[in-house]
Amino acid sequence: MCGIVGYSGPNNSVGPIIEGLSRLEYRGYDSAGICLKINNELQILKKEGKLDNLKSLIQEKKPFSHIGIGHTRWATHGAVTADNAHPHGNELFAVVHNGIIENAGALKKELQKEGFEFKSQTDSEVFLVLLTKFFKESKNVLSSISKAFSTITGNSAFVIIEKQSDKLYCLKRSAPLVVGDNKETREAFVSSDPFALVGFAPRIYFPEDSVICESSVNSSEVTIKFYELNLTPSNRYKIQGNAMSVDITSKGPYEHFMLKEIHEQPYLVEKLAAYYIKDEGRKILDQLVNFKTDCWHITACGTAWHAGLVIKNYLEQINRQRASVEIASEFRYKNPIINQKEIGLFISQSGETADTLACQELCKESGISSFAIVNVEGSTLYRNSDKNFLIHAGIEIGVASTKAFTLQVLTGYLMSRSMKSSLDDPKLFIELKLLSTRISELCSESDKIKKIAEKIYHQKGFIFTGRGKYFPIALEGALKLKEIAYVHAEGYAAGELKHGPIALIDEEIVNIAIIGPELFEKTISNIEEVKARRGKIVVIGPDHNAEIEHLSDAYLGLNFEGLNDLSPLYVNVALQLLSYHIAYLKGTDIDKPRNLAKSVTVE
Ligand code: AGP
Fold it and tell me: What is the predicted pLDDT for the residue at 243?
């Protein structure tokens, strides 16, 4: 969603702000802007479209300022225009916002009746106008921020600069926001993501909800202060070093981050296996030995939800424990039945997905423990969980999640195995190593998958099918393809096709059929039905099979031997590569697909 970067210090703020926004580009956005305080005036530059458009404007104007805020906007209220882009400013303040002000409509009407004017159609400007109104009444910035924030509803993060001082103010409610400082260089920073501050701020502060942070810099020091909304000093924040390195932003020899991240999987699988079986992670999993619960309430969104579906199978089949997997945006509003001996399990790469966080809140209110399978250490989900199971994927820049899915599922698998029997079982490590090898083989055979993509990329629609443990993979394969190739793709349980979707089949439709060694004959019958209706058939299935060879238009033979419960992950990597090659042939923006955001921090 929206990216935020703010700077205050002795240098030109334009450099760190634009660098920070560039690093957040992968999250998705549709316009960008910056506000700089120059000669005691707040000057705003905004452009629709890519950050490069804003960079060209900056190149032309060459502004210099010691304090500024920048923003990449992912439109929610109001069209994608320069007027609706952030920052929003007036003669007193400039504001950037990430989130949604739910009562913006009603507030705007009231403010208009009072004579206030609006320059944009955004909800964000309502905050600016409220702030201005309260400031005109009180002449006190902090109390005006507090009052404006208390007037609005919904989840949001704001950064504010004002004409009369060089202070950066920020606060948030259930939206990501961090503050950073560098005591040596006397610089203060604000961002929606610590990644934007790597190399700038060695120290990161994580304020809790409704804590106002005020950063100021003078000729001898940088001062960061925290206040409650009643303006008493607050200690509701955590401090952490920023250990990330800037190198992680490089694509290395790959043309896209997505491809790089797919190729990282063999190494990451082994690394995760070593962490949880042999190294420090073992202590975390050992706490689960003999762990039992009446029901696991798994909630997540998108790809993470698909990971949840695979993990549910593990919990049911390996542990014989009940698990329900729900889409977070559904669970949170369904008045779910939650009993005391149950556990909430939340899966999220970013740890900032608004709907997933809301489910966690709901489970906590119901008095049950909250476990998380999460990538970003220090994220809101991480901080609010009773137990965290980190997936150690490193930063995932491609908007389409690949390595995070694999490692989420693998973490769930190891959790499930640790509840069942000793992780010292040498077969377990061999199985994980085998998965890594098979994924590596797939990556090196990427050209074979490319040839399949060349045969089908121009087709109108794609139906992914799978049975049992491959059904979630059919859903994930279809999601990946639609995300990056912008084509219609759906995932179905293979047996479900004849209950409706088969009506779609004709020569313009491709059935990507996942066939595992299990239920082989039944899945073959399903593809016969598609073939009879002139649909194109691509099979991802056991290798060297004459029957499949005969039936399919294209066939990727896989070696399932020895992978057992991990085979869905193997198949999924083949589908990741297939989507990548189809998208490549279609010429789409693979790493930053249109309309998508990397972490969805609004409902
Ligand atoms: C994955 O390719 C998607 N971009 C998306 O579905 C994502 O998995 C979902 O938004 C959940 O994100 P999270 O894992 O950060 O919570």
Answer: 63
Find the 327 Cα to ligand 1 centroid distance in Å.
Answer: 12
Choice from 1, 299, 310, 353 to test ligand 1 binding pocket (greatest atom count within 8 A of CB): 353
Give the pocket of ligand 1 (CB within 6 Å): 301-304, 348-350, 353, 356, 399-401, 483, 596, 599-600
> Domain coordinates of the chain in residue numbers?
3-248, 257-444, 445-596
CA separation for the pair 45, 28 (Å, rounded): 20
State the distance from the centre of ligand 1 to the C-alpha of 477, rounded, in angstroms: 14
Three-state helix/strand/coil letters over 433-499: HHHHHHHHHHHHCHHHHHHHHHHHCCCCEEEEEECHHHHHHHHHHHHHHHHHHCCEEEEEEHHHHHH
State mean pLDDT over 242-271: 85
Q: pLDDT category, 157, cuts 50, 70, 90? A: very high
Per the prediction, the chain carries an average pLDDT of 94
Percent of the chain at pLDDT > 70 equals 99
HSE-CB of 266 using CA atoms within 13 angstroms: 13
Please provide residue 589's backbone torsions phi and psi, each rounded to the nearest 5 degrees. -85, 90
Q: At 246, is the pLDDT very low, low, confident or very high (cuts 50, 70, 90)?
A: low
Which of 378 and 406 is assigned the larger pLDDT?
406
Q: Which CATH code fits 257-444?
A: 3.40.50.10490
CATH code of the domain occupying 445-596: 3.40.50.10490
Ligand 1 mean position, distance from CA 599 (Å): 7
User: What's the pLDDT at 295?
Assistant: 96
- 539-555 exposure pattern, b = at least 16 Cβ within 10 A, e = fewer: bbbbeebeebeebbebb
CATH number attached to the domain at 3-248: 3.60.20.10
Residue 384 Cα to ligand 1 midpoint, Å, equals 19
**Which pair of tokens denotes residue 587?**
């010429």
Whether the predicted pLDDT of 12 surpasses 90: yes
Could you identify the atom of ligand 1 that is nearest to the CA of residue 353?
16
Q: Can 257-444 and 445-596 be said to share one CATH topology?
A: yes
Lowest mean pLDDT among 69-83, 196-210, 417-431, 521-535: 521-535
- Residue 316 backbone phi and psi in degrees, to 5: -75, -45
CA 224 to centroid of chain Cα atoms: 29
- Is 2 designated active site? yes
